[in-house]
Write a structure and sequence with these properties.
Largest sheet: 4 strands, mixed
Order of helices and strands: EHEHHEEHHHHHHHHHHHHHHH
Oligomer: single chain
Structural class: mainly alpha
Shape: elongated
Strand content: under 5%
Strand order of the largest sheet: 2-1-4-3
Distance between the termini: 85 Å
Helix content: 55-70%
Radius of gyration: 35 Å
């Protein structure tokens, strides 16, 4: 899109000019620029009678081109307009904004608004339910000649960008799951579903699989989505470790390790697992952390400080699979071997040779005389005050 490109409005596409919900609900989220652009379009709508230049919008709103492009993106994302392109010619289709109550009942939009103006302000805007009984009348009572075929199949249409939070939370209740931060988590869940083009149920399946105890972990969901296939020449032993790491939960994996050493999982070890899970590491990676930690000690109790050190290292390096964790162990072992070789080969130090335990005095008589002479000269200087 360029300033001199042309656009026209879609015919027979007039929308309501009631701006109350735009100011109350949309403005805090979409911002002044996007709102100004929307108001411009509904004000200058001409039913597609002629073509316009985008430069007219830039001049009228005092926008730069990047601001105009971003504002179009925002309005499109909130389903306030649709922009169609055919070569260098564009067509604008306008959409009416949701009413304030429709907006507030939208599971995603309402939480975006809460982030901007606060829960209390949003609650104050919601319509209070009536305590009386609704005296509803069906359409067929008023128009008896209506057939069943034309009766609306749904009393409530699904809103664009809405996340079916009601069904999602029903499954959460069934499986004993809860949000850590409902407002932030719902927005992140919607973002995941939108990016992956998933249904709410597909999103829930991943949320359940990556939950930490009873808590939904959007961080671990993101890690699972970011997993990539890793191929390497793993040894049979490494392949066996990878298979085991992928087949068990960290608690089951730790229980097996403890039983091999005649031990039981302690309360502090349970808390350690929760801390590692909170870093966002996935189960298969945590199991490698546990195995590596146990291999470092000859005890039935886990070295918690070392385990957290490894876990933080894996989180920092974005280790997302058991394969990547095994390769990380390889990398550290190779580096350790190289460092050891470097230390062994470089024997030059500032420590005198005579202080070494295997030192043998091979100084000649001539060298002894020279050392004695220098010693006497140094003593003489000290006696003279260093002169």
């Amino acid at each position: 899109m360029k300033p001199n490109d042309r656009f026209s409005f879609l015919k027979n596409n007039r929308v309501s000019q009631d701006t109350s919900s735009l100011v109350q609900c949309y403005l805090p989220i979409i911002g002044q620029e996007a709102l100004s652009l929307y108001l411009y379009t509904i004000t200058f709508w001409d039913g597609g009678q002629k073509e316009h230049l985008f430069s007219h919008i830039l001049n009228h709103l005092n926008f730069g081109m990047p601001t105009l492009l971003q504002s179009f993106k925002v309005l499109s994302a909130f389903d306030l307009l649709t922009l169609y392109q055919k070569e260098n010619v564009y067509e604008l289709q306008l959409h009416s904004p949701l009413s304030s109550q429709e907006f507030l009942s939208h599971s995603v939009y309402s939480r975006l608004l809460e982030k901007k103006i606060g829960d209390t302000a949003v609650s104050a805007m919601k319509q209070a339910p009536s305590e009386g009984e609704a005296l509803s009348v069906s359409l067929s009572q008023v128009f008896p000649t209506l057939t069943e075929e034309v009766t609306p199949s749904e009393s409530k249409s699904k809103l664009k960008n809405d996340f079916d939070l009601e069904h999602f939370q029903r499954l959460m209740a069934r499986d004993g799951l809860r949000f850590e931060d409902e407002q932030a988590d719902v927005l992140e869940l919607f973002a995941i579903a939108d990016e992956k083009k998933w249904t709410w149920f597909e999103t829930y399946q991943l949320a359940k699989a990556t939950a930490v105890a009873p808590v939904i972990s959007v961080k671990r969901m993101r890690e699972k989505i970011a997993q990539k296939l890793v191929s390497s020449d793993f040894s049979p032993k490494e392949m066996a470790i990878i298979r085991e790491a992928k087949s068990k939960t960290p608690r089951d994996f730790l229980q097996v390790l403890k039983q091999e050493r005649k031990g039981y999982i302690t309360q502090s070890e349970r808390e350690l697992l929760h801390q590692i899970e909170s870093l966002g590491l996935l189960d298969e990676v945590i199991n490698i952390v546990l195995l590596l930690t146990f291999n470092k000690i000859d005890s039935s109790n886990i070295n918690e400080k070392y385990a957290m050190k490894v876990a933080n290292d894996y989180a920092y390096h974005k280790i997302r699979t058991a394969e990547e964790a095994v390769l990380r162990i390889r990398e550290r072992q190779q580096k350790g071997q190289e460092d050891q070789k470097s230390k062994t080969s470089s024997t030059k130090t500032n420590v005198p040779k005579w202080s070494q335990p295997d030192y043998k005095n091979r100084t000649s008589a001539q060298e002894l005389e020279e050392m004695e002479r220098r010693t006497q000269e140094l003593l003489a200087k000290l006696d003279n005050g260093g002169a």
